[in-house]
From TrEMBL:
Top-level lineage group: Bacteria
Presence of the UniProt keyword Oxidoreductase in the record: yes
Keywords for the protein's UniProt record, in alphabetical order: Copper, Metal-binding, Oxidoreductase, Signal
Signal peptide positions on this chain: 1-19
Stated name of the protein: Sec-dependent nitrous-oxide reductase
EC number: 1.7.2.4
Species for this entry: Mariniflexile jejuense
Compartment annotation: Cell envelope
Coiled coil: none
Gene: nosZ
Chief location of this protein within or outside the cell: other
Annotated InterPro entries: Copper_CuA (IPR001505), Cupredoxin (IPR008972), N2O_reductase_N (IPR011045), Nitrous_oxide_Rdtase_Sec-dep (IPR026468), Nos_propeller (IPR041114), NosZ/Cyto_c_oxidase_sub2 (IPR051403), WD40/YVTN_repeat-like_dom_sf (IPR015943)
UniProt GO molecular function: nitrous-oxide reductase activity
Pfam families, per the entry: nos_propeller
Amino acid sequence: MKKLLKLTLALLSVFTAFTSCNNSEKKSGALAGNVAEKVYVAPGQHDEFYAFISGGFSGQLSVYGLPSGRLFKVIPVFSQDPEKAYGYNEETKPMLNTSHGFVPWDDAHHPDISQTAGVIDGRWVFINGNNTPRIAKIDLSTFETTEIIEIPNSAGNHSSSFVTENTEYVVAGTRFSVPIPQKDMPIKDYKGNFKGSLSFISVDKEHGNMDIKFQIIMPGFDYDLSHPGRGKSHGWFFFTTYNTEEASTLLEVNASQNDKDFIAAVNWKKIEEYVNNGGGTMMPANYAHNVYDETTHTATSTMKKEVRIVNPLDVPGAVYLLPTPKSPHGCDVDPTGEYIVGNGKLSANLTVHSFTKMLKAIENKKFAGDAYGIPILNFEDVLAGSVVQPGLGPLHTEFDGKGNAYTTFFISSEVVKWKLGTWEVLDRQPCYYSVGHLMIPGGNSAKPFGKYVVAMNKITKDRYLPTGPEVTQSAQLYDISGDKMELLLDFPTIGEPHYAAGCPADLIKPRSKKIFNLKDNKHPYAAKSEAETKVVRNGNIVHVNMTMIRSHFSPDNIEGIKVGDKVYFHVTNLEQDYDVPHGISMIGANTSELLIMPGQTETFLWEPKQVGVWPFYCTDFCSALHQEMQGYVRVSASNASTPLKWSLGEDIE
């Protein structure tokens, strides 16, 4: 009887606990199970959004799916990538040329997607190299970097690479002011002698080709971030500044003396008209313009020797300064183009400027003075309103298209939702930890897709398994479709993410290139069939025109190579359907593998140092007979008389 009573009590306890759990789930609404459903993408199904997240010090751009948080691809941009041979193969090495020589790294911060009529069009992504000032363009039909332009007269290319609402221009604003032109001078003479530059890079409407149209030479402040006007403010661009004190040392103290710094409002339409009528001055410069040709599969690097500069004082009405609480970081414009949010990192309040009030103040010439001849507007005359004490350490703001704004607060580690126009705080959610940028897909456009916000955090500490002295960087996904934000997901990221750009997958998926016709391959060493393969010697230079197809190389045996030769392997992938790449690696090659896409030709250099018979093989799994996809190169002594021979499917006589 006692055993039966104990069993009954045990069953009752289990039932009570189970019922309690069910009741708790009903009461609490979205517990882990329901949240998981919101980010779950079933096998074979696609994510709703693409997110292009900067890699920061990795120099690359990563592609994630939302809401799953899955990493799909790392697009090499400013840094060498051994997985894809970018910056290693002979075809892409020129992409990393600069006026400082071959620079195979940069600090990639702010991606932005091309727009038409203020709406994201999904054609290209632009991203900045912060260290050696550069702007890159990625073609979203192939997800490959196709152009990089170096920015002269610049240092710390930070307030970049944001686009105007019809992608007329992508901007590149200097972070550090420097002597323009560069010269040897005492650093203590910074004030009044160093200058900043704001570069406007034109973008060809059809092909996206970039060219520096003009540079505005500005006072020697630090130019931090920027965003374009849109709608009513289209034709203007806005840049935050700090260090208006023009200090050159101990900036954490000396650049925080002034009560207010500025947002620089630039009427680029007015300057464009001035330049089109012959205005500005051509200045000697030295900068690289690197372009990847998608028919030859080869990049070329051209050193350009001049750039057009504009003194804003020569274009009255083109540039004004809006006082903004000290040390502003983010500079964000709402979808209507009316509100310009300046986030003063050291301010207790969020300051929002009015474009309409700005125009009225300019019309009435209500100025508080000038900085090096550039008019300063009165703070009160351009103020739309303030969000009072919303958090600590405001950085960046994005918009959901429903009249709401979302701002990150670095010190209090949170995202705060507030209402445009009334300036009231509506909601707040913690981030883990020290959030920097945030992104709403389309948040930097006239038409945001206000379903999710992605917060990019600088610190993660206890969110993931420990991985040594540095824990992975982290992004967090919030659902913002309702009145209250809801944390859905943490996911690790590549490098230190700064900004991100996002858009619906349906904008890009239909344009993704699927067939790569061999007839379109214009590479000078392409072998478009096995009949065209050959090995040619010219002195100690040897060119191998090779093909690859599931599951062999042609040729797969080569003899007559000598120690001291320079052997260029030009390898063509004869596959034409997307997602059938092949790889090749050669023992002793002082480079990475080649990962060759369908229909493409790539080249690597091999300089044999030892006699022997050395293998090469396919590095990318391609078929059931992938392991059998291999070959040999016989290397003889430098003075040997071994004849040059090659074959496929037969022994070399």
